[in-house]
Amino acid sequence: MRANPRIYIVVFLLLLSTESAYSADFHCVDGSGQEIYISDSSLCGNKKNKKVVSPSPLTGNNSNYGTYLKPFSARSPWNSRPHIYTLGGDVIPPDAYEAAIASGSFSTSFFTASASDAPVTIYGVYDQDSEMVRDLVLPHWPDNVSSANGSDGHIDVLDTTTGIIHSFWIARLNDGKWSAKLYAWSRIDDSGFGDPAHYYKGARAAAVPTSAGIIRVNEIDDGKDQYDHALAMSLTYSALSPVPPGYIYPATSADSSYQANRGTIPEGALMMLPSNFDLSKIASSAIRKIAKTLMSYGAYVVDRNTGTPFVIYQEIGTAPIAQWRQSADTRLIRTALRQATVSEYLDANGIPYAPTTKQNILSMRGIYQLQMGKVKSTYDTYNQKRTWSKTSEVSREFIYPFSKVEWSKPVAGDTYEVVANTEGGAKLELQVKGDQNFDSGPLKDGESKTFQWPEEGHMVIIIYSGIAESSSVSGTLIKK
After folding, report:
1. Per-residue pLDDT at 54
2. DSSP single-letter state for residue 166
3. What pLDDT, in 10s, does the model give residues 200-216?
4. Pairing outcome for strands 177-179 and 120-127
5. Which of 68, 116, 411, 439 has its CB surrounded by the most CB atoms within 10 Å?
6. Residue 477 pairs with which residues in a beta bridge?
7. What secondary structure letter does DSSP report for 287?
């Protein structure tokens, strides 16, 4: 028998009158039988079978985002709560081991560097954004840095003087010298995910910092019944999808060998527990806290492991959760987790917003060819622009770029706007060759052009230096 929704709404209002703010989750069943999860019954409209499921608390203190203890912006997917979403039907299959919450050798540590810390050189590292192997010099590096002992060797270091997270994979200290296989960086106050222009922002396979979504030392025993952010999760081959490109929005990359996967879930997917999941069946209070977080925020799939259905990551240094008693609880979670498709989020301040793939697709990285002049530009990764030193005549350079991110590739017939951001008299020109050609002409700082993307269109970026002590150029290209 269907319950009277008016009774539940009274209960919902009573809950709102208590000290903690609550948001009740509703199921709205549309005409096709699709079940939509939503946090406000009035938004169900004319959909059938409105009913309240158990309420879950919203974030209380929403200040100080974009900091070491609360990484990324208030509107980051990591700090946003799904508001309107549907859940898929695919189940994470069992594998060689039980699902786990892990703080050991395959997790990560998150360090801070300050102005008083000395510089360091990281030898022989592949800089993913600059697309080159180099000896990376960082201005500040704390003495207490140590990498995870596992084969991934993750380290994240926040330089508090710049707000940049330096993220490493297979970092090792040998004979007093640091080396690493891969380096990427992100700002502490941005989204915590890559974007089409700066597509690799961390050392996880999904191109996010390894510090994103981990259970932190300061929050594991904070007295709350859930974490105030989405969690980071890896899946194994049997769950992950082999379908190209191996990832979906908001992820911008995946494991390079994704085609060896055998499952259905891409990296970048948000995994959630349904809001009617029975928390009372979880024996461990620490795992119950994780389960409640999975009901409210979910976990983003950011990496692949070997043989474990899922792993949720704790910061190295946190106490192990439930230890050998994990299996029964994580098995219940594994069988109930589903992939969420989110049409609206609430950010950390409770403001609703819709996720969007309309992001800048114009990157300045790559090897530019000098056509005119004597001084070649260099790529400034931290400012995402190309710079020239002193020039006495104009340098003209060009490149044929290509999109790194599948979900952001231009669509023929759609409208785009290119905007130049330049200093020192530099200019930006965009050409798009196709069945109809577009040429912006040289654009000065702040100038823009709007155009329709042609069939089979491919870009040419042309940059012009100023005649000055220094000059620089970057730009944006965003779908309207």
Report:
1. 30
2. E
3. 999 999 999 999 999 99
4. parallel
5. 68
6. 418
7. H
